[in-house]
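hey so i finally got around to running the thing on that chain from the lab meeting. sorry it took forever, my laptop kept dying and i had to restart like 3 times. anyway pasting the input first so we r on the same page abt which one it is
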Amino acid sequence: MAWRELGRKSIYASVSRILTSKAFRDTALSSNLLSASVGRVRGYTSNSALLGDDTLSCLKNRFLIRRFHATPELLKGRDDDVVGLHKPKKGKFKKKSAKGTPPVDAPYVPPKLQTNGKSTSEKTIEIFDGMTTVELAKRCGQSVATLQNILVNVGEKVASEFDPLGIDIAELIAMEVGVNVKRLYSYEGSTVLPRAPVVTVMGHVDHGKTSLLDALRQTSVAAKEAGGITQHLGAFVVSMSSGASITFLDTPGHAAFSAMRARGAAVTDIVVLVVAADDGVMPQTIEAMSHAKAADVPIVVAINKCDKPASDPERVKVQLAAKGLPLEEMGGDVQVVEVSAVTKKGLDKLEEALLLQAELMELKARVDGAAQAYVVEARLDRGRGPLATALVKAGTMVCGQHVVVGSEWGKIRAIRDTAGKLTNKALPAMPVEIEGLKGLPMAGDDITVVDSEERARMLSAGRKKKLEQDRLRKLNEENIAAAEKKKKKEQDRLRRLNGEEVSDSETEEEEFTRIELPIIVKADVQGTVQAVTDSLKTLNSPQVFVNVIHVGVGAICQSDLDMAQATGACIVGFNVRAPPTSLTLAAAQANIKIKLHRVIYHLLEDIGNFIVEKAPGTYETEVAGEAQVLNIFELKGRSKARGADVKIAGCRVMDGHVSRSCTMRLLRSGEVMFEGCCVSLKRETQDVETVQKGNECGLVLRDCFDFQIGDVIQCLHQVNKKPKFISSESGAVRIEC
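ok and heres what got predicted. didnt touch it at all, straight out
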């Protein structure tokens, strides 16, 4: 204890020496530290020591308390009379509830995305396997933190912003942001081997495309088609006489199937343009050339029907050259082959031309790894469910894989080749039919192979959500445009009421009473559904709005009947079997029209005439007849009971007929003198309703007394003019008002 007391006295002496020094006192006074640095000691302050008096002489045996405060939080122990510093107020203590839900089960709240003024739904970015979060954020136009937040919400681990992402995860993030994606695949480290060429046959309707393919593969598909024309997109493999294999896509030539031809040109390597030697270049021929040029694929011209007496291949070549197709005979690079599907003339030359073009292109594809495929057509089978005809572009498709097809997903249950035989796998350039999908995909969708069922479900749900958002956005834009148009019309009407002038450009649109015609479309395959829907939409007119409220693949069922009854729609079935008798009777009782067709010509013609019947039409004033005034008769001095004086025009009907219920127009030297109604029309002494051409009559016009001999009286009546259904030779249809 003695040594501790000695140390304490030594410290007291040192502190007193420092506090009584002149240098410390000057510094304390200049920086105003004298009350902020030294505390009180039992009623005495250290100010006296700082000032040099002897106040601290009595504190030699007492402990001097000195406090140094670094932050406002440490000032909580200070006394209340310290000037300039306040103790923070203590908040009310709240006990945390022990029943709170864990953060994992909390509902997902989408992050607030950055907007740069442009719509992100129209933006398309390229993604690939192994891209980092930083690179994806730059392409999406969002911050890295936003994408990491999305990663957490989709259940992925967030390590570093420079870690590689899978292509499926990158697509999920991009869809959550709201942008469209395009997948890029790398062949680095893969086995690349030559593959068979994919050839699409295109041309005008009835130019012999399917017959030419039948001659190549020695079958008879054209005879089985309804109406003798192709109405589906077919894919099959043909083994040529040289031993090589070629995958052919047969496209329809009717104008309604433009989308099918575009899909065929997008997936093909070579386009065979079939032109009839006796018909020449037609509208769908030009359209096929446009599709091929848009897809940037080479063209081989096959001039068919060269066995006919009226064939003229040279004329066809001149027409093709005039349309901008560089033929080999004229210094270009497009091969031309003259063939005949009936006599099989020139088929070997066509095969040689196709294989030569394929050799020049050096077609190769990846054969290992996950498959990339393209949906050519999709249909619904009663026993096997949704079926998709696919063309493998790269990789190998194997049974049991989980795939995402557009917005649908499934597990491949079976793979069948074009002959209907089961196979375990599909190689590049091989058309196959797969089953096992949960829903029916759209024709033209890409097939993506994923690792697990969970990933397939996530991708499918994300794509469906994106499609629904795009649909709602488009519908909202249409509603806004319609509201603006209606507002503008109302403003123009108010301006006319106020006497302001409205320009002709603002009033040139003719006002019609437009009615809505709801239609339900059912067809055999997905591609045909799209073709029929697009064709029906071309029949829109200012008087009738064709509203396709529902489309589907398969036969007409009870749910279609219920929807038609609720909406007053007409059901259109194309290439589907007739509904059962019970459904037919129920439709007849509910006054629901069901139209079934197997040929696209008949379907469009029937719907076009139906639209013309439903159209309200426009009323126009026409001249029903003309009468010339030959004499004038006056009746004067009539009694009050019989009315005032009357002036009668004695006329002869020169053209048409004159009716008492019609409006009359009085013309004198081509100038309109009066227009009003007819009060009386007599022939001889009898009142008549109508006087035909060549007969004489007497008529009285209300409030008209200025007749002169030689005047012309026109009989006017209102005529309701219906729109016209017009169909061209190429199959294009329209409604003309």
